[in-house]
């Protein structure tokens, strides 16, 4: 019976609409991933702008994105000759051959996002290029084909409208209805991430719920990173309390640890680090790592190794909190940054070697009221031990008298012996030594 069933099994080619549905469902997995892909396209278009004018990217949502989400930009727009292939699978203007990977500078390049959005939502694009006198409104079906085209008034740039996200996936659509507000919070985090990578671009995000409009994000544009941090995170992110990150040349031990030839300085000399961390004063840190942003060639990435290094150094001065971190890493364009389909993962041994010599220890110490790491400061119990209350003064006299009787009374010993310190900070070794003496003396008195 089993042999008969196995003999009848054949390999069939999956139909195009089925294979498309399977693949596109993995490209856009949430509202935030859809918005990320559209912002990538907007920033790529704006980066090609030569005219000196304010760049902006606006994101409008209705019902936290459950009804619709729009991404509007004033980039270069789309030429009429590209309309037919605009939302077709694997269609892009950002690379043509495999050799283009070595000089790739755009955020997107796979040509999958718009086609994936067509497959799972209703997509409308309104665009006008610099060569056109009017804009064009395009509506697409679920296969990425144009079903309606009409002229409209629009300034130069592009608007992408995504309605009823996941409408072709009923189960995911139902789940999205329950999680829309939470997913919109992730959209805000993604926009913050983009705003910090491009402080010269103006980002606006609005949301309309039950007819009431809110605007949770509105960056000024044409400013520095520190001003954007203040705009996004408020007064506690005081730009005067931000510590610059300084990169040092990796030592030989660190280079060997990461498999990099210490004599081959070209492996990490081309790697540049800039950025800052928040002051280690209590109140300027965070209870979690939710405000740590890493960029490689202006691309947001997930780089856990460097976050771990900086968190460890920061917590030497502020054990209960994590820093706000904004770090920009510039590597040669020939390096492949993307190792994951989400474009967010980055790993490189030569960069790890440079990371381990990233200097924030001394600058952080300058922001602390006590410039020593926590491990060298007086533990709380020891501090209490050396701060005896008034009712213990009798015992203190007994302790001192016993210590005088126990130790030799030679002048040399008397000149070198130090009395217990009752005021100010003491080192860890002094604390241990005095604590041991105290306990030993207590046994003698009792």
Précis, in short:
This protein has 446 residues and is α+β, with helices and mostly antiparallel strands. It is built from 15 helices and 15 strands.
Key words describing this protein structure:
Ribosomal Protein S5, domain 2, 5-stranded mixed sheet, Heat Shock Protein 90, 8-stranded mixed sheet, 19% strand
Question: Which sheet architecture does the biggest sheet show?
Answer: 8 strands, mixed
State the end-to-end CA separation. 90 Å
| Strands, count | 15
SSE run: HHHEEHEEEEHEEHEEHHEEEHEHEHHHHH
The CATH topology of the largest domain turns out to be Heat Shock Protein 90
Question: Which CATH class of the largest domain applies here?
Answer: Alpha Beta
Mean pLDDT: 73
Radius of gyration: 31 Å
Q: What coarse outline follows from CA principal-axis ratios?
A: globular
Strand order of the largest sheet: 5-4-3-6-2-1-7-8
**Residue fraction in strands:** 15-25%
Q: In CATH terms, what is the architecture of the largest domain?
A: 2-Layer Sandwich
Total number of domains = 3
How would you explain this protein's 3D organization?
- By secondary structure, the protein is an alpha+beta fold.
- The protein has three domains: 16-222, 2-Layer Sandwich (Heat Shock Protein 90), CATH 3.30.565; 239-367, Ribosomal Protein S5, domain 2 (2-Layer Sandwich), CATH 3.30.230.10; 378-445, no CATH class.
- 36% of the residues lie in helices and 19% in strands.
- The protein contains 15 helices and 15 strands.
- The strands form three sheets. An eight-stranded mixed β-sheet has the order 5-4-3-6-2-1-7-8.
- The N and C termini lie far apart (90 Å).
């Amino acid at each position: 019976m089993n042999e008969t069933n196995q003999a009848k099994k054949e390999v069939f080619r999956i139909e195009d609409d089925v294979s498309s549905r399977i693949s596109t469902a993995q490209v856009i997995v949430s509202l935030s991933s859809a918005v990320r892909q559209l912002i990538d396209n907007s920033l790529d278009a704006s980066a090609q702008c030569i005219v000196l004018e304010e760049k902006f990217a606006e994101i409008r949502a209705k019902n936290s994105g459950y009804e619709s989400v729009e991404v509007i930009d004033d980039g270069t727009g789309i030429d009429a000759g590209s309309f037919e292939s605009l939302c077709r699978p694997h269609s892009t203007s950002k690379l043509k051959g495999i050799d283009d990977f070595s000089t790739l500078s755009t955020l997107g390049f796979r040509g999958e996002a718009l086609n994936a959005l067509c497959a799972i939502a209703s997509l409308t694009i309104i665009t006008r290029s610099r060569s056109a006198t009017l804009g064009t409104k395009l509506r697409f079906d679920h296969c990425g084909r144009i079903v309606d085209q009409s002229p409209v008034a629009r300034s130069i740039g592009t608007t992408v409208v995504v309605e009823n996200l996941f409408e072709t996936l009923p189960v995911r659509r139902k789940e999205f209805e329950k999680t829309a507000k939470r997913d919109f919070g992730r959209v805000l985090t993604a926009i913050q991430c983009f705003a910090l990578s491009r402080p010269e671009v103006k980002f606006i995000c609005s949301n309309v719920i039950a007819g009431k409009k809110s605007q949770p994000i509105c960056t000024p544009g044409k400013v520095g990173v520190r001003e954007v941090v203040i705009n996004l995170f408020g007064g506690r992110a005081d730009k005067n309390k931000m510590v610059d990150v300084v990169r040092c040349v990796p030592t030989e031990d660190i280079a060997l640890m990461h498999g990099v030839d210490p004599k081959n300085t070209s492996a990490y000399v081309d790697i540049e680090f800039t950025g800052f961390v928040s002051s280690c004063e209590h109140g300027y840190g965070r209870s979690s790592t939710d405000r740590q942003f890493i960029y490689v060639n202006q691309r947001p990435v997930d780089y856990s190794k460097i976050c771990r290094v900086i968190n460890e150094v920061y917590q030497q001065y502020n054990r209960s909190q994590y820093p706000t971190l904004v770090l920009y890493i510039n590597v040669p364009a020939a390096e492949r940054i993307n190792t994951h389909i989400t474009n967010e993962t980055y790993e490189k041994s030569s960069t790890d070697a440079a990371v381990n010599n990233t200097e924030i220890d001394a600058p952080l110490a300058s922001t602390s009221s006590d410039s020593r790491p926590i491990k060298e400061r007086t533990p709380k119990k020891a501090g209490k031990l050396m701060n005896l209350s008034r009712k213990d003064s009798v015992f203190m006299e007994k302790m001192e008298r016993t210590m005088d009787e126990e130790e030799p009374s030679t002048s040399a010993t008397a000149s070198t012996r130090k009395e217990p310190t009752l005021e100010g900070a003491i080192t860890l070794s002094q604390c241990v030594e005095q604590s041991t003496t105290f306990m030993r003396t207590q046994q003698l008195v009792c």
